[in-house]
Amino acid sequence: MFKLIWRNSWRQPLRSSLTVLGMALAVLAFCLLRTMVAVWDAAVASASPVRLVTRNAVSLMVPLPLAYYPRIKSIPAITAVTYGQWFMGIYRDERHFFPQLAFDLPSYFEIYPEFILPADQKAPLYRDRRGCAAGRQLARRYGWRLGDAIVIRSTELQEEFTFILRAIYRGSDPTIDEGRLFFHWDYLNEKIKKIDPERADQVSWFISQVSRPELVGPTAAQIDAMFKNSRAETLSESEAVFRTQMVSMTSAILMSIKVVSWVVIGVILIILANTIAMSARERRGEYAVLKTMGFQPRHLAALIMGESMLLALSGGLLGVILTFPAVQLFRILLGHYFRVFPLTYTNLALGLAAALAVGLLAALAPAWQASRAGIAEALGRVG
Q1: pTM (2 decimals)?
Q2: Residue ranges per structural domain of the chain
Q3: Rounded alpha-carbon distances, angstroms, from residue 181 to 5, 69, 144, 146
Q4: Using CA of residue 320, residue 321, residue 325, residue 328, what is the dihedral sign?
Q5: In 3D, which of 238, 187, 194 has the Cα closest to residue 55?
Q6: Rounded to 10 degrees, what is the CA torsion of 294, 297, 298, 302?
Q7: What is the pLDDT of residues 321-346, one digit of tens each?
Q8: Which of 175, 223, 256, 344 could form a disulfide with 42 if both were Cys (CB 3.0 to 4.6 A apart)?
Q9: What phi and psi, each to the nearest 5 degrees, are found at residue 169?
């Protein structure tokens, strides 16, 4: 049976090759699209269970006073607190975008151990007020070396900031973003005091680390109660919830990507079904002859099913193999947009399973027709 399936599958080499190639490209597109969705999922999955984020209850874009810092730090369940804010800056021009964040660096890297700084680079970074830390991927992108001056122009303050690269961090695992630039919040605050004093001593958020995961909820409620009815009320939530809300802002995009990934599979299902149907029609007389030789309807259905599954499996495996270099190419060409591009075995298995499902569905109708056709009827249509 396998020999018959193999020979029938490749009887029309050009048609079969194009079908396999089409299936491979569909599986490749499916895996890449699902990997793009995994970029957002990875951000939520990597959230720490002992970190919580405190921001303004009105909006993330509304700042909080730095004076909240000692009051938050005094809560017994909290072991460490850091603070920071966004920095809207342009390096070279608008095309060269990467996240720029101002933090109290010593406390930030204490709370975020997944950003690993070399031991010999910590002291120079913390000592230099203009010092900054760049991710390994970001430094590689621009060819930065330790001691280089990095000039970034603030779009809000209309002022140039000159940072000195004192450290290059790496992620503890592949899901950690190595495309960020961190610098001292104090340096930014000094500039703001000179340019716009009313905006000084304000931060975008506080990030706290609690002693145990079960204390995150009560601690968040305690922080919000502490600043209730103040001029800047707070909203505190676990890091996972905070990141989930950030991801939800792009939920329409994520849903579109998921829909497109399944549409691609649907298109290749139609193509493969047409190929199998054509093959079955062309061999109607052959199936009649096989029936006269004693082949049962189930044998004919198995032949057609096997041919369809073989083509689908070949295309699926080729698509999975092509996904690896395609992901590497994406990381090189689009690394500044997708700084974390996790290729998971789950997505690869899902792509291969989708290909096999397409092969099975595409063969159902031709297999049923071939097994039901009478010998005289099939032979009468030959030629």
Answers
A1: 0.70
A2: 2-43+251-380, 58-232
A3: 57, 23, 12, 13
A4: positive
A5: 238
A6: 90
A7: 998 888 888 776 665 556 666 777 88
A8: 175
A9: -95, 165
